[in-house]
């Protein structure tokens, strides 16, 4: 054992550790996962909070002017959010009304198409199979036409289609041979079917346009509510905090300056008082013929050390 190289011993031990770790991973992967336990662990961690708009703020300079600007922007964002919310509610009401109309129009469209198909079958049975080609050959221009217009609902322009008749119907020679009554009934049935189809096309086009407008409005409402307003509010809090901190610093600085000035005034007053007392004492001593200042100068001069005398 001692003759084996040390590197081979290390490689064997590392290989054993790898096999043991791989076995643990395999046992863990084969272990069944309990969904309830997983949900309990996730719920125990608390709700997942979106931190995108919680602490985000605008990069501004904390000044009083910027505080007023941010307040004005917050007021504008609040008003815009309220207006967009009302617009979304109005569009939603119109959307539901359009949905009901579409359901009714589709139900009536089925009945109309069935009636018109039966009428065309009766015409072909009475007047022959060539009646369709005869009608197409004799008609040069359509009598029933469709025009488009726009309707404004809460700032959204919805397309509308209206049908109208233009020109005279060429039914002068209808029924001379046979099947005149059936041809007229078929014509009336198909006119009603076209009216229902035009109305349904108008409703469905307005439905799609309104759906896109509602989605866009809801995105704007969510952006104002979850991004813009929190960011402005965080910016206002930041500016107010910085201004309060500056105010506290200025107050502390003023207190320090006032304390320094007060101590300076007290020191000057004490010096003035001491000088006044000294002058009073000097006056009293001068009356007695003795100068305190002169005596003090003599004492101070005598207290000085004499120079050394070298012989």
Give a written overview of the molecule.
The protein has 311 residues and is mainly α. β1 and β2 form a beta hairpin. α3 runs antiparallel to α5. It has six helices and two strands, in the order ααααββαα. The chain is rod-shaped and about 160 Å long. It has a domain of 168 residues: Helix Hairpins (Orthogonal Bundle), CATH 1.10.287.3240. About 10% of the residues have low confidence. It has a two-stranded antiparallel ribbon with strand order 1-2. Helices cover 73% and strands 6% of the residues. It starts with 5 loop residues before the first helix and ends in an 8-residue tail after the last helix.
How large is the share of residues in beta strands?
A: 5-15%
CATH level 3 topology of the domain at 64-167 and 177-240: Helix Hairpins
Percent range of helical residues: over 70%
The total of beta strands comes to: 2
User: Radius of gyration from the CA trace?
Assistant: 50 Å
Rough outline: rod-shaped
Please report the number of helical segments. 6
| Helix/strand order | HHHHEEHH
Q: Tell me the strand order in the biggest sheet.
A: 1-2
Q: What is the CA–CA distance across the termini?
A: 99 Å
Organism: Raphanus sativus (Radish)
Family: Belongs to the V-ATPase D subunit family.
GO molecular function: proton-transporting ATPase activity, rotational mechanism
Protein name: V-type proton ATPase subunit D isoform X1
């Amino acid at each position: 054992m001692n003759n084996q190289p040390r590197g081979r011993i290390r490689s064997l031990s590392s290989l054993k550790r790898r096999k043991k770790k791989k076995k643990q991973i395999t046992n863990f992967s084969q272990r069944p996962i309990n969904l309830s336990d997983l949900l309990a662990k996730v719920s125990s961690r608390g709700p997942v909070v979106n931190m995108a708009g919680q602490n985000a703020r605008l990069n501004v300079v904390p000044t009083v002017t910027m505080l007023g600007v941010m307040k004005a922007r917050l007021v504008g964002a609040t008003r815009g959010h309220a207006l967009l919310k009302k617009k979304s509610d109005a569009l939603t009401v119109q959307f539901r009304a359009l949905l009901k109309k579409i359901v009714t129009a589709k139900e009536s469209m089925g009945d109309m198409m069935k009636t018109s198909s039966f009428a065309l079958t009766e015409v072909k049975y009475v007047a022959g199979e060539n009646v369709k080609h005869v009608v197409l050959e004799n008609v040069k221009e359509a009598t029933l036409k469709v025009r488009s217009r726009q309707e404004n609902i809460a700032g959204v322009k919805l397309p509308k289609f209206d049908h109208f008749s233009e020109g005279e119907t060429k039914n002068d020679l209808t029924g001379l041979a046979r099947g005149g009554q059936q041809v007229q009934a078929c014509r009336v049935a198909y006119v009603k079917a076209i009216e229902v189809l035009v109305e349904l096309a108008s409703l469905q086009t307005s439905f799609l346009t309104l759906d896109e407008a509602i989605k866009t409005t809801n995105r704007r409402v969510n952006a104002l509510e979850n991004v813009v307003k929190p960011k402005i509010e965080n910016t206002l809090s930041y500016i107010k905090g910085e201004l309060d901190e500056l105010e506290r610093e200025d107050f502390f600085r003023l207190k320090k300056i006032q304390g320094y000035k007060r101590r300076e005034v007290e020191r000057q007053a004490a010096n003035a008082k001491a000088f006044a007392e000294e002058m009073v004492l000097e006056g009293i001593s001068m009356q007695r013929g003795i100068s305190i200042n002169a005596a003090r100068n003599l004492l101070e001069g005598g207290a000085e050390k004499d120079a050394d005398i070298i012989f």
